[in-house]
């Protein structure tokens, strides 16, 4: 047919494809046919701008900016693009995960390529639709020119441009073969985008494209990378955050065959070997003397007591995060004041795939190729360029599937070790952390203490709300410049601290601790600890007012229809108020989490002898705005319930002498199948932009369990996790509740 | 170093490595069958589950020196065309999320159905409880196993 359309953008686009494919590590989300199609696009696909290539046979490949870690964005974003393009969905596949932030960056993160905070669909919602609409417009313009008819007379059907008046049709594949692609695609206004009522793809349960690859072992995770000539590496990192190796006893690993090199680094010793088993064996044998750092003196349990004392010491105001109305007056005039302190412990991500990264530094030492699963292509490329003192263009990243992210893979902390080892041996090195190393080097959710106060007037109205949050800053550890930008108000630690209740006078303040613990976002972000305190306390206020907890929330959300709807829906699903079997009780929690209106009820029982809590049934109702892929939302929410129960019933990192006490999955325990309740999810779509789905329900599970425990025992459980020894101690405690 | 002959997915292989090399690394890094995953290295998560002589086993706890003459099946060898009833059911129920643990989950479930073609819900939970799914796909794993039982 015609010569392929030559866009001025085409060379780099094709370079991008060729770069990925030529190394033999290109993978595409989709079935095996999808892989073949995407690679064929190099020769037969026509690039239309940066976001899509269309083959003559109708195959459409869409660029994919988000990491895929099971949250389903790689299918969801493709659905959004395909919807606006009016593409024939079965013909759609996706290209390799993008690495150019200038083109594919997420507007929700200042244009960085990062998959965090449940913001892929949300952040790209306008950008992806506008890109797709521009491509559709271009195809229609090309057809209009070909037929010499006005653009206004054309419509589209899935992957076809139609001129009804003359009964003519051209497929997208046919048009792409002759269309001249200008440097800039035709502009489309937001007002011209498809309305929700016209959706064909969005809102229907769509099979995720990555799933077939995940039932037969063919999905490629970072762990699965094979590079010709590669060596294997692992690290022995300082047991105490920040300590450096003072003395490395190489003789201690002399008996291990196949060791290539021992590489001392800033806070770790790298071990490079011909096999992974040799690297791991040497790690067990290696004797290292570590330098002293201040963090040696840190212990989490006494620190938490200090955090609580500071939360209670109201003479220290803290930094105001929310200040509305006049809470001082509200409290002075209050007929009743309710007060409580809550705490949450450090947590480890326990993503199933231990941290790994494969790197190959070039001979000049000014460039590298990296293969891994990451939540932030931008962070990895930026970190590698900074370490090698080179330009980002000299770093080639090959993103893979993530065996769990949950925030752990948002940081580039593993990059320096891999580059250091590759440079030292002048070979590609696949660096795998042992699970033990992964646990010991946990980048934790911060430990927190909360003091909450509610002022109630003579009529029983809540007139004032105070919440003091004592915790270290996550971003002070992971990205210190962000703390200054936020004027000291850590956006991750404080995330979820705002309440969605109609209380006129509020003061929410942050009292920052500086202890030096390694921190990061953890699934649920700040809401994970803040909602535990807020929603547990909300039940306490309801009890003080002798109001039913659900009725209490409805009162406090009376001018908010979306909140009212999810609360009423979940109450109905759970039969709130119905009699329960003996020794069973239900607890409720509500909140807007990652912008999704969410309410949850959990039914539990308690073994008073062992202190073990068991969840039997869980109900969640949520309004995520437009529900892009409803079954994926249900799947995410089921996972949130399980993950949330794991968090409230089992998970806890403690630190002694500056080191994480836990070792592996036997002493950092997570939920198993036998811990899983029956789960019921109702998705309530509304005509609002889609909100986050990866962690909406999780932060509500903890407080719902604690609230159910009050119903069962008339004791408040204010310290998460509710592990058996704490439960037993609280049950024995005859003090006031 | 020692050389051990055994079968993997029906093919005879001869592997030379240290005697205590975990079977997991033999499968993943020597034989490049990467569907079997490293999760904990201590037999606590089940991501590395394979079949040895037809029974499920944690490949991180099995050593090369014990493999002579044995027959190992990995996720790649479970079916010829990724069409084992469990694999079909896993897709129908849209079970995997991140997917990292799912090879192990499927191999563990296949072992159950070989021994007990009609397990109860409790039997499923008991048999699968050693396999962790951090994403929390347990409800769908149960449904997929029940579907595979029904649809065979």
Can you list the strand order of the major beta sheet of chain A?
A: 10-11-8-18-15-16-17
Helix run count of chain B: 5
CATH topology of the largest domain in chain B: Ubiquitin-like (UB roll)
Query: How far do the termini of chain A sit from each other?
Result: 80 Å
How many helices of chain A? The count is 20
CATH class of the largest domain in chain B: Alpha Beta
Distance between the termini of chain B: 44 Å
Name the beta content range of chain A.
15-25%
Structural class of chain B: alpha+beta
Query: What's the overall average pLDDT of chain B, rounded?
Result: 98
Which segments of chain A are poorly predicted (pLDDT under 50) over 5 or more consecutive residues?
1-43
Main-sheet strand order of chain B equals: 2-1-5-3-4
Major β-sheet of chain B, in short? 5 strands, mixed
Rg of chain A: 27 Å
Number of domains of chain B: 2
Largest interface pair: A-B, 66 and 62 residues
């Amino acid at each position: 047919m015609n010569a392929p359309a030559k866009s001025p953008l085409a060379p780099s686009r094709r370079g991008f494809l060729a770069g990925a494919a030529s190394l033999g590590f290109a993978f595409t989300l989709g079935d095996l046919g999808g892989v073949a199609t995407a690679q064929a696009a190099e020769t037969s696909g026509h690039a239309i701008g940066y976001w899509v290539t269309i083959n003559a046979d109708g195959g459409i490949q869409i660029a994919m900016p988000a990491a895929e870690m099971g949250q389903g964005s790689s299918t969801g974003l493709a659905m959004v693009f395909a919807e606006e393009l009016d593409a024939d969905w079965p013909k759609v596949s996706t290209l390799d995960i993008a690495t150019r932030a200038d083109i594919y960056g997420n507007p929700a993160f200042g244009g960085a390529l990062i998959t965090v905070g449940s913001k892929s669909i949300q952040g790209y919602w306008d950008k992806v639709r506008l890109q797709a609409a521009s491509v559709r417009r271009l195809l229609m313009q090309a057809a209009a020119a070909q037929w010499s008819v006005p653009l206004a007379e054309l419509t589209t059907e899935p992957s076809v441009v139609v001129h009804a008046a003359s009964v003519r049709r051209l497929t997208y594949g046919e048009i792409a073969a002759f269309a001249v692609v200008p440097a800039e695609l035709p502009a489309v206004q937001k007002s011209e985008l498809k309305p929700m009522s016209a959706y064909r793809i969005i809102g229907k349960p769509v099979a995720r494209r990555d799933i077939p690859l995940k039932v037969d072992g063919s999905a490629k995770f970072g762990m699965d990378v094979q590079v010709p000539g590669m060596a294997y590496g692992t690290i022995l990192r300082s047991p105490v955050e920040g300590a450096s190796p003072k003395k490395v006893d190489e003789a201690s690993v002399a008996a291990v065959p196949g060791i290539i090199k021992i590489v001392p680094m800033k806070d770790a010793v790298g071990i490079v070997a011909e096999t992974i088993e040799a690297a791991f064996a040497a790690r067990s044998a290696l004797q290292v003397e570590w330098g002293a750092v201040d963090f040696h003196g840190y212990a989490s349990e006494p620190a938490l007591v200090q955090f609580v004392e500071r939360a209670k010491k109201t003479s220290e105001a803290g930094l105001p995060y929310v200040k509305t109305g006049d809470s001082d007056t509200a409290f002075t005039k209050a007929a009743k004041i309710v007060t409580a302190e809550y705490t949450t412990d450090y947590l480890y991500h326990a993503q199933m795939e231990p941290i790994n990264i494969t790197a190959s530094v070039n001979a000049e030492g000014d460039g590298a190729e990296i293969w891994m699963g990451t939540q932030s292509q931008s962070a990895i490329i930026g970190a590698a360029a900074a370490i090698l003192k080179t330009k980002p263009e000299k770093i080639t990243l090959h993103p893979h599937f993530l065996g769990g992210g949950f925030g752990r893979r948002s940081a580039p902390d593993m990059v320096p070790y891999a580059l250091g080892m590759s440079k030292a041996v002048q070979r590609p090195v696949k660096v795998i952390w042992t699970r033990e190393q992964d646990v010991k080097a946990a980048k934790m959710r911060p430990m927190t203490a909360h003091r909450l106060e509610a002022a109630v007037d003579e009529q029983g109205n809540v007139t004032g709300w105070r919440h003091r949050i004592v915790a270290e800053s996550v971003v002070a550890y992971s990205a210190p410049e962000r703390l200054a930008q936020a004027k000291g108000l850590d956006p991750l630690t404080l995330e979820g601290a705002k309440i969605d209740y109609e209380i006129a006078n509020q003061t929410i303040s942050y009292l920052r601790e500086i202890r030096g613990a390694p921190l990061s976002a953890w699934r649920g972000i700040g809401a994970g600890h803040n909602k535990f305190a807020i929603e547990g306390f909300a039940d306490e206020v309801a009890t003080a007012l002798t109001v039913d907890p659900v009725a209490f929330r409805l009162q406090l959300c009376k001018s908010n229809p979306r909140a009212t709807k999810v609360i009423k829906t979940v109450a109905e699903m759970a039969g709130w108020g119905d009699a329960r079997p003996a020794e069973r009780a239900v607890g409720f929690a509500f909140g807007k989490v990652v912008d999704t209106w969410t309410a949850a009820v959990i039914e539990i029982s308690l073994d008073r002898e062992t202190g073990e809590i068991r969840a039997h049934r869980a109900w969640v109702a949520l309004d995520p705005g437009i529900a892009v892929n409803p079954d994926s939302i249900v799947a995410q929410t089921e996972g949130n319930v399980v993950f949330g129960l794991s968090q409230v019933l089992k998970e806890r990192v403690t630190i002694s002498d500056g080191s994480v006490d836990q070792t592996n999955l036997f002493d950092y325990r997570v939920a198993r199948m036998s811990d899983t309740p029956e789960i019921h999810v109702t998705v309530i779509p509304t005509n609002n932009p889609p909100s986050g789905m990866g962690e909406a329900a999780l932060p509500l599970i903890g407080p719902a369990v604690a609230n159910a425990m009050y119903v069962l025992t008339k004791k408040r459980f204010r310290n998460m996790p509710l592990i058996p020894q704490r439960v037993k101690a609280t049950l024995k405690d005859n003090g006031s509740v | 170093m020692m050389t051990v002959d055994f079968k993997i997915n029906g093919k005879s292989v001869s592997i030379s490595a240290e005697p205590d090399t975990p079977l997991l690394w033999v499968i993943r890094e020597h034989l490049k069958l990467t569907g079997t995953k490293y999760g904990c290295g201590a037999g606590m998560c089940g991501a590395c589950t394979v079949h040895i002589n037809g029974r499920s086993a944690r490949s991180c706890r099995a050593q090369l020196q014990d493999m002579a003459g044995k027959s190992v099946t990995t996720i790649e060898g479970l079916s010829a065309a990724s069409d084992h009833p469990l694999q079909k059911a896993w897709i129908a129920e849209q079970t995997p999320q991140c997917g990292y643990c799912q090879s192990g989950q499927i191999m563990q479930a296949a072992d159950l159905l070989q021994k007990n073609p009609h397990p109860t819900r409790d039997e499923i939970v008991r048999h699968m409880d050693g396999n962790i799914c951090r994403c929390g796909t347990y409800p769908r794993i149960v449904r997929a196993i029940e579907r595979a039982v029904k649809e065979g």
